[in-house]
Amino acid sequence: MSTTTTTKERNVKRLSRDFESLKCDLIEHIKVYFPETYSDFNESSVGMMLVEMLAFVGDSFSFYLDKQFQESFIESAKQTKNILRHARQLGFKTSLFGKSSSQGKIDCYIRIPATTLNQKIEPNMSFAGKILRGSKLIGNNGIIYEILEDVDFSNIDVNDSNFVAVAETDSTTKQPTSFALKKTNIDIKAGQTKTTTFSVGGYQSFLTLELPDEDVLEIIDIKDNQGNLWYEVDFLAQDTIFDSLVNTATDSSDVPRILHLRSAPYRFITDYNIETNKTSLIFGTGDAQKFDGELIPNLGDLSLPLLGKDNFTDFFVDPQNFLKTRTLGIAPTNTILTVRYRVGGGLETNSGVGEIVTVSDATYQVADSSLSQATINDVKNSFSVLNPNSIQGGRDELSIDEIRHLIPASFASQSRIVTAEDYITRTLSIPTKFGSIFRAGVKAGGINKSSVELTILSRNSSGYAVTASVTLKENLKKYLSRFRMLTDSIEILDGDVINLEVNFGILCRPDYNRSEVLGNCILTLKDFFDITKWQMGQPIIKSQILRLLYDVAGVITVYDLIFKNLVGTVNGLSYSDTRFDLQNNTKNDIIYCPTNSIMEIKYQNRDIKGVSK
User: Fold this and answer.
1) How many CB atoms lie under 10 A from the CB of residue 442?
2) How many other C-beta atoms lie within 10 A of the C-beta of residue 458?
């Protein structure tokens, strides 16, 4: 005869997490389910010792479980190593953790001797050479700054008084004996360039090399003894980089460099250690001694032996071989790497206006080697600098709290173009050495909805809005190719510039000077029509202009406000060829501008005309 054993279902509480609550639950559990087995609940009993040990273990488990859960989220993580792990996982570049260096622009000057050409005394441009990049300056704060580009004085127009001035004159004849040349907007950056070498032996995947100096700002370049140049990338799977060449075309003044994509099999990434403040170089996994075809089996070679056979033997593929392909870049082997990098940074590198005036070390080159070396040295020694604006951007290392708050923002920023705003932002962010995009507008293609029509305008050296050059559009096309969606096609179009003339008439109060009031009105309109304040498609609202004129002291009323479209050459001045029908595009005293155009008062001194009564 079979017997059935009935087990009472036990009600186990699982909400208690701390020591006291777990202890009380364990005591209550014993009293309910084991009343006859154990009843000695004295604090000094052996049974209570076991109960408290179990409560302690449960409390410890709960504590570590809570900590693990807390460290799983960037918002609540406390431990530095976990915050950094989140940062790397979300694509935040660790190089941003360290110090940042100030940078800005300076004006440079040299003094060259005068010469007589066609009975005219002018600068002897044979002595106008280059101050090479890397020349060092010292600020009043004792910080070393480096010039980031060659300062070429040879291309200065000797007839341009903005950049050429008489420096010295003969005491007797009062004729110029030397001239001062000026170059503006030269980039500098705080920090010092250092060089170190690493001897690399046999193949090693993800080779990591730590630089000896702290506070590395950037890697300038890496070369091996075979002449290969190694490129820094954001991630090792990135196999192309942006590179540039000198633009020798006629638009070189507006577009100094030509952009192109370069394949980068020799590449590396950087990693910053927040505890040691040192930077490491991490290379790829590719074995340069073997081709990818040797590492990955050819399916044809494996299938041909099976032709006409009913049975076959198994074959083996080593999965480690896939890690040795060049997908993540080539690993350096049996070579010597020479690394140039810049160190420095911090809040102390920021500098005020006019505080960088000392030249520490400069290299000067002239094209004609037959010139007097003594005179060349005099020109070199005359090299001086001045920063007309403050040098800013330096900061100390990021704190853990700052890193925690910056990581989500970095993750939200995308390296791809999706929305119209993304297109405009990327277009306007192209580096200026590849040309400057002044304004941009985006809309979907008319027939192909997956195409994008990107309309752009540039500015020439005089500050006027112009259509972009062919070189600039080619640079932009290559620049956007890295970020566009796979299915998107981009059509880059020229925007139109609508040149206008404005005529107005005002009635002045009798107790005011009419000429002064009229001048103030013209200055107000010049500020209103400043091209930097206008966007593509922005309309002209006449009531806004009237309100501005009425706000000028001495104006009683504005009795006239007329706009005129200027096309081609007018009174010897060149305007755009865009014809604009003002009458048909004006409604309710609002002049509507096409979305692919911008309105401009080009020559404000001539095209803003007023009459006062």
Assistant:
1) 19
2) 23
How many Å apart are CA 477 and CA 492, to the nearest integer? 8
Total-model pTM: 0.70
User: Please, how many CA atoms are within 13 Å of residue 528, restricted to the half-sphere of its CB?
Assistant: 19
Which residue would you say has higher pLDDT here, 554 or 429? 554
Whole-number Å distance between alpha carbons of 99 and 91: 19
Q: Please, what is the Cα angle at 63 between 58 and 68, to 5 degrees?
A: 125
CA dist 481 → 65, 264, 490 (Å): 46, 17, 9
Among 429, 413, 489, 503, which Cα is nearest to 454's? 489
Residue with tokens 């007097």, as numbered in its chain: 372
DSSP 8-state assignment for residue 302:
H
> Residues 441, 447, 448, 450: is their CA dihedral positive or negative?
positive
**DSSP one-letter code for 351:** B
How far lies 101's CA from each of 347, 392, 462, 534, in Å? 8, 8, 32, 33
End-to-end CA distance of the chain: 126
Q: How confident is the model at residue 241 (pLDDT cuts 50, 70, 90)?
A: confident
Helix (H) / strand (E) element for 33: namely: helix 19-33
Residue 148 Cα distances to 151, 168, 366, 390, angstroms: 9, 30, 19, 17
Map tokens 């701390």 to a residue: 18
By DSSP bridging, strand 216-224 and strand 176-190 are unpaired
Q: Choose among 450, 409, 335: nearest CA to 93.
A: 409
Q: Which residues, 6 or more positions from 71, have their beta carbon under 8 angstroms from its beta carbon? A: 77, 78, 79, 82
Q: Write out the two tokens for 129.
A: 């050479």
- Note the pLDDT tens digit of each residue in 248-259: 888 777 788 888
**Rounded mean pLDDT, 311-340:** 76
Pick from 595, 539, 594: which is nearest to 563 by CA? 539
Do 213 and 343 meet the contact criterion of CB atoms below 8 Å apart? yes
